[in-house]
């Protein structure tokens, strides 16, 4: 209460979005470049309207769905699931030691930077590009898809796992070291209990991601339902295309429900 006027003092309000001159210049630069880039890529309103008409015509050709090729669809779906599960399992098992080696609070600098360089190399290329390389190396089929998704899994989980280890509390690690425990015991009893729930979360997300990516790598000949989808497009068999797309969406939704269930079980 203000003693001279008898009124309560009004606190001074600060603007939470009071941007500095540098940040405003950065935003304006990004907006200006976005406008410039849009003028260089051939965007136009007539082209957009024509695209809507072509899209509506394409969607109309998806109906009615073609349900007569269930055996072909089922074979592609089963191969996609097998690729995703095997790639996720192998990628997770490889990411665990690579993530440990990449943690700068556990390893010497040359070890952690080598592991992080490997992870960065795995993250540098899109899974489809990696799948093309493996198709050239090992030939068409599921093996190329599995290898491509293993690389993608290492790039994702390895990075996040290293960062999670670097955020652990050092007190528990120091307490176990003080007992004279070996390095492996420090990892098992001091590090893993602190990051295991996050590691499970990373792994379940990667499984969900591999289910989606396994359909894409199939388009370039790396096995799975993606190859079936590409063949249907080439035959202009749009009714079967709709059936494939609806099945893929259903599998992704089911995997999302499964991931949420696993997270609840492990309290992630």
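^ Assign residues to that structure.
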């Amino acid at each position: 209460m203000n003693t001279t006027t008898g009124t309560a003092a009004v606190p001074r309000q600060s603007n939470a979005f009071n941007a500095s001159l540098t940040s405003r210049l950065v935003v304006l630069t990004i907006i200006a470049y976005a406008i410039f880039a849009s003028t260089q890529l051939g965007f136009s309103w007539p082209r957009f309207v024509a695209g809507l008409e072509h899209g509506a015509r394409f969607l109309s050709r998806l109906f009615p769905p073609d349900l007569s090729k269930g055996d072909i669809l089922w074979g592609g779906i089963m191969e996609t699931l097998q690729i995703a599960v095997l790639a996720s399992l192998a990628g997770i098992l490889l990411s665990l030691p690579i993530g440990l080696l990449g943690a700068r609070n556990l390893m010497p600098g040359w070890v952690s930077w080598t592991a992080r360089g490997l992870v960065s190399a795995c993250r540098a290329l899109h899974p489809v590009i990696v799948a093309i390389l493996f198709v050239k190396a090992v030939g068409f089929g599921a093996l190329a898809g599995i290898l491509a998704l293993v690389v993608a899994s290492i790039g994702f989980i390895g990075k996040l796992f290293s960062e999670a280890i670097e955020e652990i509390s050092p007190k528990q690690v120091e307490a176990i070291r003080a007992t004279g425990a070996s390095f492996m015991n420090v990892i098992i009893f001091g590090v893993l209990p602190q990051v295991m729930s996050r590691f499970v979360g990373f792994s379940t997300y990667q499984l969900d991601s591999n289910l989606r990516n396994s359909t894409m790598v199939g388009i370039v000949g790396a096995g799975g339902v993606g190859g079936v989808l590409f063949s249907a497009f080439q035959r202009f068999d749009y009714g079967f295309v709709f059936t494939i797309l609806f099945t893929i969406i259903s599998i992704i939704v089911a995997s999302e429900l499964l991931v949420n269930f696993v997270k609840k079980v492990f309290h992630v």
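Residues 183-217 form the longest helix (35 residues).
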